Amino acid sequence: MxxxxxxxxxxxxxxxxxxxxxxxxIPVYDADTAAKRLMIEDENIRKSxxxxxxxxxxxxxxxxxxxxxADIIFRDKENLNTINSIVHPxxxxxxxxxxxxxxxxxxxxxxxxxxxxxxxxxxxxxxTVCASEDVxxxxxxxxxxxxxxxxxxxxxxxxxxxEKFKLADFVIYNDNNHILLPQVIDIHTQIINSMK
Length: 196
Hints:
Elements (H helix, E strand, L loop, with lengths): L1 E7 L5 H10 L4 E3 H11 L1 H11 L12 H10 L1 H23 L6 E5 L14 E6 L2 H12 L3 H8 L5 H7 L2 E4 L6 H15 L2
Parallel strand pairs: 1-3, 1-4, 2-3, 4-5
């Protein structure tokens, strides 16, 4: 079964593209959602997070302190690397378990930091979703109710689009100037045809 990575910078519209592929019958693994789930469910991850960042990373009710986590990882690249080293191996195992249960010509794994962590090397093909910086900032400030400065801070932890283009097999432009559905269907068709 072919494994296709789906990535893009914050606010690029990865989740929208994921939903379109789902409508085409393609199973999609959401790595970011899985990471959040595993940080709560996996006792080893929880212990490692507490050891690295203190007990306050887990709230009284057992949930993850997302605001503190965001402050920790988006302000310090070393902390981001620490989080990735704790969480990403567990996400990879979870994806492999999920993959065994799928029955489709190919699957997608959606993740924000495929290229930044070299995880793209385990995929057969990569799709990058892009949009202009201004569009992305506007989307994220509305979606997450955070300041423009916070969005830019987060963007600094991700590769610029031109670097992602060099590593991607396909690019989807989600910039209000291109229609999404034909782009997704074209990529879907190319992937299916490449398997014949």
